[in-house]
Write a sequence for this structure.
């Protein structure tokens, strides 16, 4: 039973060392006014009112906000997290209180976006394909546009059960995000509760899958794990440079901090390569690979935090809650 639990935990709880990523481009569109408002992007009017911006501050945010909207609306969005790119561009314009408020504003908007997505799915989305949802290992659209329900050949009863599990997870995560927004729980409490919610989800899924379906899911997810590692390593240098730039802007890193953090980030690449090689050569078990990636993410975060002062730590922890954004209906790196 323990082996079975480890396998389903891998298959459904799989994640990579994504870290805090940012928008891959800051090039303004030829027609800045042509960008269509994205549900992922709160309006500049709302941001101005919520943060009590001056007219001068609001004017300086027009171009960054347009770039953010354009990045979120691309069918193939740039690598990373466009919202973090916007926050990085905004940091020199805002005071510290406004910067923290902007992060909260973006997080709150994402909760609303997810609720809107759930509502639309309930009116005839892709629920028939039996998805689980973000961070749970089974997305609503499956991989490369193919629903996981098709990969596993789920019965109608299993599809319905999967949808119910997914909805419970979304409700729990939405409530947790709202609790972070209103300040009733800390970042650490949020992270722990989210992990517990995903563990409960995995147990629920385990109860409705057959052994053959578990094996098929493992093979599907392991192949995806290798693919994601290959893509991450290929893009690592550019992503690390972007990450360092954003951290420098948002946290106001001095030269010594920038040098130390660059070394911490760069040290991750050879560790990822070792995990990938081990998986490709069948020298590392899937459970060990997953544990290594999780430990690497935690140790990297702790090393980064050790370089920051108290004020920077507060902003960093808030920013870390924006690390993952589900891109429903889009292809691209997570």
């Amino acid at each position: 039973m323990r082996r079975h639990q480890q396998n389903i935990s891998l298959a459904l709880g799989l994640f990579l060392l994504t870290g805090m990523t940012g928008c891959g481009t800051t090039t303004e569109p030829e027609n800045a006014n042509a960008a269509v408002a994205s549900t992922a992007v709160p309006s500049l009017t709302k941001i101005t009112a919520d943060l009590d911006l001056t007219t001068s501050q609001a004017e300086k945010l027009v171009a960054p906000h347009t770039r953010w909207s354009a990045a979120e609306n691309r069918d193939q969005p740039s690598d990373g997290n466009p919202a973090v790119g916007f926050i990085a561009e905004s940091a020199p314009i805002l005071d510290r209180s406004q910067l923290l408020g902007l992060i909260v504003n973006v997080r709150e908007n994402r909760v609303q976006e997810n609720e809107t997505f759930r509502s639309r799915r309930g009116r005839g989305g892709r629920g028939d394909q039996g998805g689980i949802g973000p961070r749970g290992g089974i997305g609503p659209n499956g991989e490369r546009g193919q629903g996981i329900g098709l990969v596993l050949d789920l019965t109608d009863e299993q599809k319905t059960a999967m949808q119910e599990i997914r909805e419970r997870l979304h409700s729990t995560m939405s409530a947790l995000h709202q609790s972070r927004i209103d300040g009733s729980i800390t970042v650490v409490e949020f992270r722990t509760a989210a992990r517990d919610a995903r563990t409960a989800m995995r147990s629920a899924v385990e109860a409705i899958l057959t052994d053959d379906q578990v094996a098929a899911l493992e093979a599907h997810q392991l192949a995806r794990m290798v693919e994601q590692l290959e893509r991450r390593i290929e893009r690592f240098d550019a992503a690390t440079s972007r990450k360092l730039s954003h951290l420098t802007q948002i946290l106001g890193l001095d030269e010594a901090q920038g040098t130390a953090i660059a070394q911490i980030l760069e040290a991750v690449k050879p560790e990822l390569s070792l995990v990938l090689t081990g998986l490709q050569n069948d020298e590392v078990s899937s459970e060990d690979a997953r544990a290594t990636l999780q430990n690497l993410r935690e140790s990297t975060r702790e090393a980064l935090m050790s370089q920051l002062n108290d004020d920077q730590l507060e902003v960093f922890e808030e920013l870390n809650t924006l690390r993952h954004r589900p891109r429903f209906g889009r292809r691209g790196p997570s």
Notes: Residues 7 and 218 are 7 Å apart (CA to CA). The chain has a mean pLDDT of 77. The chain has 15 helices and no strands. The two ends are 31 Å apart (CA to CA).
